[in-house]
Here is the input.
Amino acid sequence: MDKVIKTDCCIVGAGPAGLMLGLLLARAGINVTILEKHEDFFRDFRGDTIHPSTLDVLDHLGMLDEVLQLPHQKAHRLHAEVDGRDVVLANFSKLPIKSKFIAFMPQWDFLNFLSDKANETGHFNLIMGAKACDLVQENNCVKGISFHKDGQLYEVRAPLTIAADGRNSTLRDKAGLEVESFGAPTDVLWMKVSHQREDPEQAMGHVGPKQGFVMIDRGEYWQCGYVIKKQSFEELKAQGIEHLRQLLAESAPFPIDRFDEIESFDQVHLLSVRIDRLKQWWKTGFLCIGDAAHAMSPIGGVGVNLAIQDAVAAANILAPKLFRGTVEASDLARVQKRRSFPTKATQKIQIMMRGKRRNQDKGQGDGRGAKSSGVMKKIGRMPWLAHVAGRLMGMGFRPERPDPIFCYNKQNSKTQEI
Here is the structure.
């Protein structure tokens, strides 16, 4: 590998946003290099929801039937226990698109699918095990990045560098972009519990008092999330694994012995919840999208969908500019302007739905101090609101549709007109 790589666009982070953007740009004949710090995509407890609006994007790209051949579960409705009774929290049956469901799919399968499709274009270069170090800047303009791989230092030079490296983005810090934080009173513990024949038949649900427990049907096992007070994990660990099993059994629709398979905290993954966004997503030659631009709460599982919508909007706006080599700061500002309203509106709803906390200062280590969300109670009283929630959760506030230039699986060349 050359010490200096030249490309039309450098994307850092091969998550849903980075790979979707890379795929779309490569389909338009733009040479794309993506850097991913991990050696593979296989990691547990990533965002594994593919929302209806993302499925609609895949349908327009001619990929929907193929992607749905991958292992997945469908959720046509999402359920929650509210005041002791089961309520349909979101109903997708009236969405104005083909795929009226959320698909729960291992993210590594989805990412491998997108990568394989991008490779077919001949304009795509994915470098795994490449850890971004710093931005290459000249006269306050980003010209590329430096990265480490196998103990060697390399550079990528490109007219545009895009950070899609998640909520802990290295590059947004290097760019000096200011973050607005809206906090979060809770964290989430993720774990696996084996699936048994007599278990409830639903793809996803929020159960237990105060919606403290989330369960997602992953086929052979349940992916379970348990809400705890912010920064209380160490306190909970000090009380021992048996105490955690007891707390889980109080909220879950399973007897306590179902949690015996959780033998230690090594099997429990902590998700530190936060809601934030950049005041400005860009500087000349550089743009943040997805979680790098706006970290979302796991409420509704909308983070992946919002990131992919960012990618589609960015591709629609920037592909013609990249093709001609004329990306300007005003073009990057257009991407932020396009995606700011969906981001702010979604975060506003997430803040509303997390509810207010009681007994915040009493030091509970579990999620039982959280009041039931008033939004959930209202949906329980007025079931028609489940269709409204399904529209907002499934489609978002401004669903994006890929430009027709991306919707044909061609071997495009740089001599074609966009």
